[in-house]
Design goal:
The structure holds two protein chains of two kinds. By secondary structure, chain A is α/β, with parallel strands linked by helices. In chain A, 50% of the residues lie in helices and 12% in strands. Chain A is built from 13 helices and eight strands. Chain A is globular. By secondary structure, chain B is of the alpha/beta class. In chain B, the strands form two sheets. Chain B has a six-stranded parallel sheet, with helices on both faces. Chain B is globular. Classes of the chains: A alpha/beta, B alpha/beta. Chains A and B meet through helix 1, helix 3, helix 4, helix 8 and helix 11 of A and helix 1, helix 14, helix 17, helix 18 and helix 19 of B. The structure holds iron/sulfur cluster. The site of iron/sulfur cluster has 14 residues of chain B, from loops.
């Protein structure tokens, strides 16, 4: 599909597409149900059916990043069982998609049963903004929000999936939003999964740098594409008593004036 | 090893160090990124350089043999040292043979790795570091905290006090004055030295020469004034051809300091030949293994041998920016140190190094040879999680293992998962 000016209009009826399957990401699923609702609302507006497998849990990333590959592998195998037959999977977290796309093949490199499936799955799973902009060529969801917004580039989304411009285009097309870039938007926020629990002082120092840049940007809201990072940033914002809000991009994209 | 956490905390609560590290990254880290963008061949040259390095590493035995032959043909002597002790004793032996009483040194991380200075000093030899940063560190009896900027953790006030104490000058914290004083005292050392010891940025197998980069000119003096020159290189530091060598040096200067080329580049292929205006009478090249063969033998980690020690990854790492170099507790710090230090000095002993990182991937993008450091950090973590007999690594923590087993069990079932979520909400409301 070619990117045309027409996609900047509200694309509600343009995509009588086949349904997408939603992988919610355990963090959003468990701690931030609003994010899940927002993602569903986005697809609802686009007229695309969403399938959300009831028994989904986690992609296995936390264990994999901590080095526990057997445990990660078991969880990943289950993920493949659940999502293996889905045509298109969309997930509102870059690091989970990065896990499936780039680490599953490694995790199953000696497992003939799952390796081919893992590689195949990697081609059919998309991060939300990547899917909207690159696959559906939607850059305007008709949302409205008045305020200054700054965008944090999550590490795995940016460096693992090379997604940099997609979220920014979506944000810029929200009516009333002024996108202000913070300094070093691509610098790690200090979350790093279990790093944040194991090395809290280092994590906090990193988050403090991130939050200083957010504050200096003059934004009212910081938007990201991964709840892990946003959770870390939010914690630090609260710590310094800032009233800057954190929003997942799906939440911003479903705001109506 | 609690010290990683303790030292990290110390660094974090030192505002002067924090500013110094932030400035370093702002200048060098961003400078390198800009320098890659402006490469005539485009930033893709980093990927080509990765291939060049990988190929060299895969044929290391042949390249080193050729290198040694060429050096010997040029009148130099080559010594293969299996470990730190062998390299140190070779140096001591050379010094004894030539009646060396004073040594001037160019910056060399490998010499720090093998603990050379202490060994020579114990033999009654006066050893002087001639790189300004290293000189400061030596006067202060400390260790470098950055591969390229070893004294980055020291303020100019501290350096002023140090120089007053050690060089007997009146106190000043004015950098140009301090540099002048250092230069004055170093000049005497250069003229009096019998032996120069340097590292090697990169050797070239095809030509048999080594290249040394500096921005202070001290390397040139260390390699030409004394009667004897000893260069020590890690065995991985060799390029196959002159054109590979050229690409790598250009990337090295960019990665290290965002420069097109360092201020001084010395190409050294042997001792002074008849008709040469200067140069040493004797030239030795020590090629050090010290654990590198073991890395070479392991497919998972071989890639780290591509490293040309530019320090570029330190200049972008958000963890290094907070904890500084000393927290790593070893010669090699930062992202490269997080991989190479455990492999050289014990995965179990340095377990914090590969765990105390966020896997953000900035290091890979900053690396002139595009080394996938996060991938290897993950491999190291997996060694620690379940133990690894081939590296004599024991499981890091049984408790942690049990924790992840329970986690995994909970993730196998939606109902169990929901119970877990409820628990988590209690812990992190
Ligand atoms: S890993 Fe890459 S960036 Fe880091 S020191 Fe080595 S060559 Fe330089």
């Amino acid at each position: 599909m070619q990117q045309t000016a027409a996609t900047h209009c509200r694309p509600v009826l343009v995509f009588p597409e086949r349904p997408v399957t939603l992988f919610v990401q355990c963090l959003a699923d468990s701690l931030y149900p609003d994010v899940k609702k927002a993602v569903e609302k986005i697809f609802d507006r686009l007229g695309i059916d969403v399938i959300c497998p009831k028994d989904q849990t986690c992609c296995g990333q936390p264990a994999f990043n901590a080095g526990y590959r057997k445990e990660a592998g078991k969880t990943a195998a289950r993920f493949i069982e659940i999502f293996g037959n889905a045509e298109t999977i969309v997930c509102p977290s870059g690091s989970c998609v990065n896990m499936v796309r780039h680490h599953y093949p490694l995790l199953f490199k000696n497992d003939p049963k799952y390796h081919a499936k893992a590689v195949d799955l990697g081609r059919r799973i998309f991060e939300l903004t990547e899917f909207l902009v690159d696959v559906l060529t939607v850059t305007d969801l008709g949302a409205a929000f008045s305020g200054r917004v700054t965008y944090h580039d999550s590490c795995h989304l940016l460096r693992g999936l090379s997604v940099r411009t997609q979220p920014r285009r979506l944000i810029q097309n929200v009516k009333g939003v002024v996108l202000v870039e913070m300094k070093d938007s691509d610098r790690c926020c200090g979350f790093g999964g279990s790093f944040f629990l194991k090395y809290p002082d280092i994590s906090r120092a990193m988050a403090a740098d991130k939050v200083r840049n957010i504050v200096d940007s003059g934004a009212d809201v910081v938007v990201g594409c991964d709840m892990g990072c946003l959770m870390r940033i939010q914690k630090q914002l609260i710590r310094i008593g800032s009233d800057i809000k954190t929003l997942h991009i799906a939440q911003l994209l479903t705001m109506a004036g | 090893m609690q010290s990683y956490i303790d030292e990290a905390e110390k660094a974090i609560s030192n505002p002067v160090l924090q500013t110094a590290l932030a400035n370093l990254q702002e200048r060098l880290g961003k400078g390198a990124a800009a320098a890659y963008r402006n490469l005539p061949e485009g930033p893709g040259l980093r990927l080509k350089a990765h291939d060049i390095r990988m190929q060299a590493i895969n044929s290391l035995d042949v390249l080193l043999e050729t290198l040694a032959e060429r050096v010997e043909k040029n009148g130099g002597e080559v010594i293969f040292a299996d470990d730190a002790a062998a390299a140190v004793s070779a140096c001591r032996e050379i010094a004894r043979k030539h009646g060396v009483r004073a040594v001037v040194k160019g910056k060399s991380m490998v010499s720090d790795e093998i603990g050379l200075n202490d060994a020579l000093s114990a033999d009654g030899i006066e050893v002087t570091e001639t790189d300004l940063g290293e000189y400061i560190i030596q006067l202060a009896a400390e260790h470098p905290s950055h591969i390229i900027a070893p004294a980055i953790h020291k303020t100019r006030d501290e350096i002023g006090t140090l120089f007053t104490e050690k060089l007997g000058i009146s106190y000043t914290n004015d950098p140009p004055t301090l540099t002048r004083e250092a230069r004055k005292s170093l000049r005497e050392k250069f003229l009096a030295a019998d032996m120069g010891i340097t590292g090697c940025n990169l050797a070239c197998s095809e030509t048999g020469h080594i290249a040394l980069l500096s921005n202070e000119g001290n390397i040139r003096m260390s390699t030409t004034l004394p009667r004897v020159h000893v260069a020590i290189m890690g065995m991985e530091r060799v390029a196959a051809t002159l054109s590979d060598h050229d690409i790598l040096l250009r990337l090295l200067a960019r990665g290290a300091a965002g420069q097109k080329m360092a201020g001084y580049v010395s190409h050294i292929s042997g001792p002074r030949q008849p008709g040469h205006a200067d140069g040493p009478d004797h030239y030795y090249l020590i090629i050090l293994d010290n654990g590198r063969s073991r890395i070479l033998a392991d497919e998972r980690f071989r890639e780290i041998l591509c490293c040309i020690r530019c320090g570029g990854c330190l200049n972008v790492c958000p963890v290094y920016a907070k904890i500084g170099g000393h927290a790593y507790g070893a010669t090699y710090c930062g992202p490269v140190g997080a991989v190479v230090t455990p492999l050289l000095s014990g995965v179990g002993r340095f377990s914090h190094l590969c765990q105390g990182e966020t896997l953000c991937g900035a290091c890979k993008d900053a690396c002139p040879v595009n080394i996938d450091i996060p991938r290897m950090l993950l491999e190291l973590r997996s060694m620690l999680a379940d133990g690894d007999a081939s590296w004599q690594v024991r499981r890091n923590s049984l408790l942690e293992k049990a924790g992840w087993m329970i986690w995994s069990w909970m993730m196998q079932d939606r109902r169990r998962y929901e119970i877990g979520v409820k628990l988590m909400k209690r812990i992190f409301p």
